Amino acid sequence: MGQTRPARLVRCCHWLLSTLGFGEKAEARVVSFGVSTLRSFDVEPLAFSKLDAGDYKYTITATDTTGKPVSTSTSFSVKTATVKTTGVKLAPTSLTLNVGASATLTATVTPANATNKTVSWTSSNKTVATVNTKGVVTGVAVGTVKITVTPLAGGTPATATITVKSVATSNITFSGLHTVPNPLTKGTAVSVKGTINSTQKLKSVTAKIDTQTGRDKKCATTFTEANNAVNNVKFDLKAFDAGLKFSKLEPCDYTYTITATDTTGNQATKTINFTVKTAPTTTPAPPTSKPGPGASMDTKLKYIFGKSMGTQTWTGYSNSLASQVGKNLKTIELDVWTLVAGKKVAKKKKLTVHVKVANEVQLIFRDIFNDPEQFPISLNTTGSYTNRGNTWSLHNYGLAIDINWDVNPMVANNQVKNSKYKPGENPLCIPANGSVVRAFKKHGWYWGGDWVSKKDFMHFGYINK
Known about the structure:
The chain has four helices and 27 strands. The protein is mainly beta and 465 residues long. It has four domains: 10-78, Immunoglobulin-like (Sandwich); 87-165, Immunoglobulin-like, CATH 2.60.40.1080; 172-277, Immunoglobulin-like (Sandwich), CATH 2.60.40.2550; 297-461, no CATH class. Strands 14, 15, 16, 17, 18, 19 and 20 form a seven-stranded mixed beta sheet that branches. Strands 2-1-3-4 form a four-stranded antiparallel beta sheet, with no helix packed on it. The chain has a four-stranded mixed beta sheet with strand order 6-13-12-9, with no helix packed on it. The chain is rod-shaped. It starts with 9 loop residues before the first strand and ends with a strand.
């Protein structure tokens, strides 16, 4: 490796190998010569093949008999041998995804000890599927695409075939659903009927009765029925008849909810709101001294005001009733059907009428409510008593009732076709042969729709005025 020639007798000679820049001792050996004459010698060779990669300093020091050292050194670097990449393996080599779903491909560079294992990923059609730098593939649209992984240091790339399919369509519908009577009389059993149909197999169906949101939970006994082994595209709700006990519900406002879930996780829900009420213990009795439906106007007026009209005109007679305006009135609460979001629901309606016709009005509205027609009555455009600022209007005494006045107008006989009165088209218009007219006439009241020169379709009066 070199020679050292001292000027005088050499006492010893040694060498030192250290890591360059850090001063750590890598390896050192001392060679003693003890020579008395000038001579040449070779330094013992090092096992350089054992060195790890790094930067080193090689130092030789010679010391003569006087103790004076002489050194020489050289620096060098050891580099790691480069292992070339031959290719890459990909797993799996084929994959099926739904649109929107993702999966990961695994790339293994060969050989295992390759120096540079960096790879790049590409998709042959990004509109079908994409791939990120970690091999995560995401389906974008229906189709087939090649995903390629390439070693950046060279070698053979690998590909995987990805098939993207559409997500299975799912649609759940309810048909022939039997609605719960509203209101429902306490103790009444209800047989819920209907069919659930699905484009995918149904996984589960549940039905539940619970109190409506915002109501006192203490007023209710709730029921839940579940079927978790449907495995079919159709389900008959009669399977729940034994589980849901409507007849045990206490008076309250309830929601009946049916929930169906298919094997794809899609879910559909049907809700029905209803009210349970206590059955009335008694039916309002008609007044015993009240004139019958066929009684004359004079008889009816004497019953109400205590005096007959005789030969007076109505205007003249009504002038004598000024002290009766707004007197002897009673506010009653009635069950009525009304429209909410286009559907008929049961509500309460208050009317202020003359005390002597209060029971009769209750009977009239009971007949309307119980009729299969379920005629809807607007809560805001139906009324009775109002002080019209005169004496001749029956409304001053609570002896006339206007129903749905916004669509049952007073018009001249020859203007009916051009008016808002459209029975058969508008469910709030009172038909001449409907349950409302029948109920009032049954109890001897008169309908303004029967007048000749003009029609007052909203108006029902205790007498024909």
